[in-house]
Amino acid sequence: MQTAVAQQDLEHIFSHTGNLWDSLRDETIFITGGTGFFGKWLLESLAYANAKLELGIQAVVLTRNPNAFFKTAPHLSCIPAIRFIQGDVQTFHSEEVRAKLGKSAPERYGYMIHAGTQVSATLHAENPLTTIDTIVQGTRAALEFAIASQTKRFLLTSSGAVYGKQPTEIVNITEGHLSGPDCAHTGSAYGEAKRLAELLCVSYYQQYGLEATIARCFSFVGPHLPLDGSFAIGNFIHDALNGKVITVKGDGTPLRSYLYAADLAVWLWTILIKGQPCRPYNVGSEETISIKCLADTVAECLARDAKVAVEKSPDPNAPIPRYVPSTNRCRVELGLEAWTDLKESIRRTGIWNKKVCHPQGMEPSLKGKAIVNGN
Fold this sequence. Notes:
This protein is of the alpha/beta class. The chain has helices at residues 7-17, 37-53, 66-72, 74-77, 94-101, 121-126, 128-148, 189-208, 232-241, 261-274, 291-302, 328-334, 342-354, and strands at 28-32, 58-63, 82-86, 111-114, 153-159, 211-217, 220-221, 246-248, 255-256, 259-260, 281-283, 289-290, 308-310, 322-323, 371-373. It has a domain at 7-224 and 259-286 and 326-334 and 369-373: NAD(P)-binding Rossmann-like Domain (Rossmann fold). It has 13 helices and 15 strands. It has an eight-stranded parallel β-sheet, sandwiched between helices. Strands 12-9-14 form a three-stranded mixed β-sheet. Helix 2 (37-53) links the parallel strand 1 and strand 2. The protein starts with 6 loop residues before the first helix and ends with a strand. 46% of the residues are buried.
């Protein structure tokens, strides 16, 4: 069971998005992937701003299993302005949504966020066809739904994986870099599918005028991040909090960067409202760190006595993999920053995960009964 994110983080998001919310006043937003890591932060920040400014925003969230979500995140299930419906991101359509919502179905959805995808290295490697279908068919279904719903602005959460393997000589990869994943390797399924999802957005903008914005997301840390998945930083935090040896599966040399989740929420809302249609924006941090140093930093922040074990020895002749974006476009054009440094991000994530999960920490104005549709 999970608890609400800290008031400090919600206030941080609000302080950097306060001038955006009027654009959403009295609108209805449709969200896919609203029960995942990204989605939870979007819902929490939306609920906070909605209550604080009395915006009258409604949100409809598509999820495969609403009841399972409510058991793990009760604080998000009891917000009257947010309704959940059961559905498959690959096949849902406007008639299905209207049938499940019944008479309460809105005539239009002014804004849509498509964050519905599975981020699992194991799935991508073992079942690339499922990965491709989920991303490509899901994006097509979302775009068709947006057209049928007279949506004004659409946000696709894409990925830095669209660039393929980052050249070692490029310190921070830019949106204008035209490399791509290796199409002869099934491990490229996720990145290639995201490339096609972006192309679909551009095509729908050209053919239908749908203002589709694109966020190319890199690596993140924060509350709600799974600690038992394929994210190295999540696994390190899990080990540290449970008194285990922090284990680095590889040789520890790959270079990464991590944006804090509260900053991520600011970036995604800003790109949705202010981003130029079909102009991709890298979303992430430029604070570069090796995986081995990341493990050491997690130990320093959360468990000073924890040991760090690296399973493999570095090959001195091998190039060091990088996955670090240039965020100049977001900083210059949209005024965004990575406000929270890595150590503080890790510290806040650790504190949140130590808490006993309960819904009492929510703002009183956010409490109420959830509206659930579908079986």
